[in-house]
Model the fold of this input.
Amino acid sequence: MQPLIAPSILAADITQLGQEVDDVIAAGADVIHFDVMDNHYVPNLSFGPSLLAALRQNGLSAPVDVHLMTAPADRLVEEFIDVGANMISVHPEACVHIHRTVNRIREAGLQAGVALNPGTSLSAVDPLLESIDYVLIMSVNPGFGGQKFIPTALDRARTMRETLDVRGFTDTRIEMDGGIGVGNIRSAAEAGVDFFVAGSAIYGVACTHPTRRDDYAEVIETLRAEVAAR
Done:
């Protein structure tokens, strides 16, 4: 499968968000990643469906991957379906009936994912494999951007890839979110990850370099080269 690079807008300049999204797409990003936090399931508050609706109205046509760090998740699932999400992942701990939730996402024509925190057993996805398109392995504890990568996430990704392959779900992607950058993306790819969320690694270059779009393209190209070199 073609690897996917998904910049997280959590790390973008919120005062210029429309331009920031346009710039990373022009720089070669595949997907825009929405980290949705509710100050309940996680200790932070971020974006809601109205922001995605505004970006769609502003001309955003790229795929959008919504990671719901919210509890309960089901109402926001419906709202993000309505405003143009392409992928939605939910946490098992945040859903009363997660099987029904992921099937609802798929019924709406979207890709469905299950997000696993560092302390959540990989076995949580076992009864859901026929109903999902990707597994999101968190490589930090959810709630904040810019955190340090947790190395054991690589072992978890490797185990998940083996499980998916053995059980015949070879087309199910593994996404990784948290601390992904040039220094570790190759190791993640070697562990079986093919869907990479990168926030600070991409948007952080704007803090020190004025030619933002050129820098975004350079970082994304470097990330792709590291994946290809695995």
About this structure: Residues 206-211 have pLDDT under 50 and may be disordered. Helices lie at 17-26, 49-57, 74-82, 98-107, 152-166, 185-190, 200-203, 212-228.
